[in-house]
Amino acid sequence: MSDHDSPISVQSGGTLAKQIVTAEEGGHWPIPEGTILASGVQRTAALSVDIVIVTTILMVVSRWQILNAWNITLWLSSGFHHSLAMVMILFISHWLYWRWTGMKFSRSLGQRMLGLAVLAEDGSEMTSQMWDQRSRRKLIFLIPVINLVFGIRELLRISSRHTHQSNMDLHVGSIVVQANSLPPASRRHIK
Fold it and tell me: Domain residues for 168?
């Protein structure tokens, strides 16, 4: 038997399933062992909660004037600058919310309520620059009609990739996971 290769070979690196996933990744980053990636439904629910939180606070603080951001009649009148101001407040408030909660908790409040966390692809804490990019890219979900088109596209990307990454995640270099499935070393910065 020494003159031919054995059909069975012993390889290091874990179970056969782990080796198959590694081969499918094509050399892409390794997911921390035991980590459960967030589904598109969980991520959509968390985003919806976040938008409701920030918009509700803005409605109370502005005495419902923030609703003028979506007032088409006002947009078409000579007072369109009121709507423009409300849109700017809406965008800046959401950007600040997503950036601040990301830096403070490694996730937004909606993601925290659903037990999700956002990490860099290698399982480490995200940087300030990564949170800036992620927060800026989420603003597209505040624009009516366009948010539906981009939302459906991102959900299709999440469900079609084995890493459950949206295009935004790929650009930023992040993953969204179920926080309690992370190994303790990757969970220490999540609050």
Answer: 29-182
Tally of domains within the chain: 1
Task: Please state the separation of Cα 29 from the chain's center in Å.
Answer: 17
Look at residue 107 and tell me if it is in a domain: yes
d(CA 128, CA 125): 10
CA distance 162 to 31: 10
Instruction: Please report where in the chains the tokens 């999440």 appear, as a residue.
Output: 158
Q: Which helix (H) or strand (E) holds 151?
A: helix 146-160
What is the 8-class DSSP label of residue 178? E
In a domain, 190, yes or no: no
What DSSP string describes 69-133? Answer: GG-HHHHTSTTHHHHHHHHHHHHHHHHHHHHHHHHHHSS-HHHHHTTEEEEETTSSPPPHHHHHH
The answer to whether the CB of 107 falls within 8 A of the CB of 179 is yes
The token pair that represents 147 in the structure block: 């948010």
Q: Is residue 149 part of a domain?
A: yes
pLDDT (tens digit, 9 = 90+) per residue, 152-174? 999 998 888 877 888 888 888 88
Strand partners, 178: 116
pLDDT digits (tens, 9 = 90+) for 91-128: 999 999 999 999 988 889 999 999 899 888 877 788 89
Query: Would 9 be classed as within a structural domain?
Result: no
